[in-house]
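Re: weekly structure request thread

Next one in the queue (97 aa):
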Amino acid sequence: MATVKFVFNSKVYIATKLSLFKVKYERELRISFDIRKKEKHTKTEEFVKEIKKIYKETKVILKKSQEESKEYTDRNKKETVEYKVEDKILLGTKNLM
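Done, posted below.
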């Protein structure tokens, strides 16, 4: 189960172009071979700006994706018929026992 969770959290998703780990923990996932890298640490203000930018971009992308899904779902949606008391309707007997 741990392997599945690791793969799920480290996968970079097409819609957001980010991994869940980056979104949740505000930093890239470090794997054993990444630890040996010699990187300069960014200033705190730059880091905060980057994270805010990532959250805004992610929010916009997810909102767009949600709207597209709604449009796709609504395309095949039929209008519901509202019946009133004493309306006459025709019932089929196919599924009655």
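The mean pLDDT is 78. The helical segments are 2-10, 20-25, 32-35, 44-75.
Next request, please.
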